[in-house]
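[agent] plan:
  1. take the single chain provided in the ticket
  2. run structure prediction with default settings
  3. attach C-alpha cells to the ticket
  4. add a short note for the reviewer (M.T.)
[agent] executing step 1
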Amino acid sequence: MTTHDIRQRYLTFFASRGHQTISASSLIPENDPTTLFTGSGMQPMVPYLLGQTHPLGKRLTDSQPCFRSQDIEEVGDNRHTTFFEMLGNWSLGDYFKKEQIPWMFAFLTDELGLDASRLSVTIFAGNKAIGIDRDQESEALWQEAFRAKDLDPEGRIFAYDEKKNWWSRAGIPAHMPEGEPGGPDSELFWDFGAERKLHERSVYKDQPCHVNCDCGRFLEIGNNVFMQYKKSGEGFVDLPNQNVDFGGGLERIAAALADTPDIFLIDVFAEALHVIESLSKKSYRSDSIDAKAFRVILDHVRAASFLIADGVIPSNKDQGYFVRRLIRRAVRFGSRLGIKEPFCLSVAKAFVHEYVQAYPHIAKQQEQIVREIGAEELKFRKTLQNGEKEFDKLFAQHSHISGQDAFLLYATYGFPLELTEEIAEEKGQQVDRETFKQEFKNHQDLSRAGSSEKFTGGLADHSEETVKLHTATHLLHQALRTVLNDQVFQRGSNITHKRLRFDFSYPEKMTPEQIQQVEAMVNDQIQKDLPVHFELLDLAEAKRRGAIGVFEDKYAQLGRQIKVYFIGDQAMEAYFSKEVCGGPHVEHTGQLGHFKITKEESVAAGIRRIKAELS
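[agent] step 2 finished; step 3 output follows
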C-alpha cells in the first residue's frame, strides 16, 4: 500500500461515513496576517470551528499539505520534516468522542491493517486550576476498542497534563489569548519495538520508556482534538458546538505501515533518494554518517517545490526567506555528500513526478519550480565560494573565528553557522556558539520590532476597516487585469486595518499612467456604490461565469461548492468583479471611501507589489 493509497483510503473511509471531501488549501494562508504558512490541517478550518457555517456541511475530511518553518533545524533525524501532509476529519457540532475514537481505531487496524497490539494512546489527565477534569470518556472508549481486539488496555492508555494532551494553536491554556479555541486531545502512537530503545548505541537504553520519550521506539501518528472550549476573560467556556478535529501525519502513518522508523524510507521519497544516490555515488543508510545530509536534501527540496508551486519566490523576507533558506541548506548538504554540480533541479523533478496525480498543480508549476530552484542554487554556490574567502580573511586577521565573526558571515554572506564551525574545526578552533546566538537574538529582536506593525490587525479580527480594505483588494485585482492584461493574477496579500498589500504576477514596472488608471478605476467603482453579494457554486460553474481566484484549482473539486463574491448589479448581471473568496466583505462599495495607491514595487522576478490605503 503506497502513501497515495493511504491518503485515498482515508478520504474514502470518511466519505462513507457522511463526510464531504474538501480540497487542500494553499500553503500560504489567505488573508491571515497572523502566520506566514499553513502549519496544520486545522488552520484553514478555524472560522468553522468557531461557529461559522461551512458550505459543505458539518462532516468534512481532507488531506492538507503543511509547512512548519520552525522545524528546519530539526530536520536530519529519522522523523522530522518541514513539509508534510495532514489527514483530517472534522465534526462541526455533529458527532463527538463516541464516534471519532472507534472510527479512528477501525481505520488504522481494520482498513490499513496495523497491528492493534502495537498501538498506544494518550488522554488528558485534567487540570483543576482551569476547571477541566480528566477525560474519562475518551479513556473508556479506548479501553472498549482494545478489548474488542482481545487486548488488555492496561499499559496502552497514558494520561498527561496540558503540556502533552491539550491542543490549541497557542499551546498550553495559559498561553491562549481570549477567543482562542482549544480542548483536550487524545494522541495515537505506533510502537516500533523495544529493540529500538535497547540498541547498544542508544543513549536511552538505561532509561524508563514511555510513549512521549525520545528514544525512537514510539512514533506519534495522529491526534484526536476535541474542541470543546474557548478562552474567555473569566476562564474557559463551552464552545457553541462540540467539534472534532483529527490530524494524522500521512508520512508517519505510511512509516508505521511499512514498519520503518525512518520516514525517509517510505515510497514518496524513493525516486528523489535514488537521484541523490546516483549523483553522490553514495548509498543511503539510516545509521550512516551521511544520513542527515540525505534527509535534509529530501525534505528541503520537496518543501521548496511545493512552496514555489503555491507562488512563493525565494527572497530575503517573509515566506520567500524560508524558501531561500531551504534551497541553500539543501545545496550545502549536497556539498557534504560530495556533489559538485547543480543537483536540486533533478531532485525537484523527481518530487513533481511523484506527486503529479495527487497534486496536479505542482506539475503545472514545474517550469517555475525549475527556474527558481535552479537560479537560487547557482547563486548560492557563488555565496559559498565568497563566504569561504571571507572566512579565510577573518581567520588570518584574528587567528580564530569569534561568535561575532560567525554571525557576520551568516548575516552578510548567507554562510551557515554549521559550515563556519566545520571549517574552524579543521583549523583546530571552536566557534563561540553562545555569542553567535546572542547576536542572532539581537537581530531577531530588531526584525520583530520592524515587522510588528506590518502584522497588526488583519482579517483575523474582521474589523470594519480591514473588511473594507479586503473588498478594495477585489476591486484592485480586477482593475489591474483590465489596465495591464488578463494574465495578472494574485500571488499573495496581507491586509491590516490601516492598509492593504497585494502581490500580483506582472513582468514589468507599472508606469505612472497605469497606476493612475488603476486608482481611478477602483474609485469609479466605489462611487457607483455597487452591491456586493456571494453565491455558492461548484468550481465548473464558477469558472463558466468567469470567476477568478487565488489557487482556484485547489479550492474545490468538480461538483463541490465554493464561495464566489460578485461586485456589481445582480439584476443585470453586470459585474465588475467575480472572485472566489471566503469573505467577509462590505455590502456596497460606497462604504469604502477613497482609494489611494501608496507604493508599487518589485518583490521578485515577475512579481510586483502594490500597497494602498482607504481614506
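[agent] step 4 note for reviewer: The first strand starts at residue 20 and ends at 21.
[agent] ticket updated
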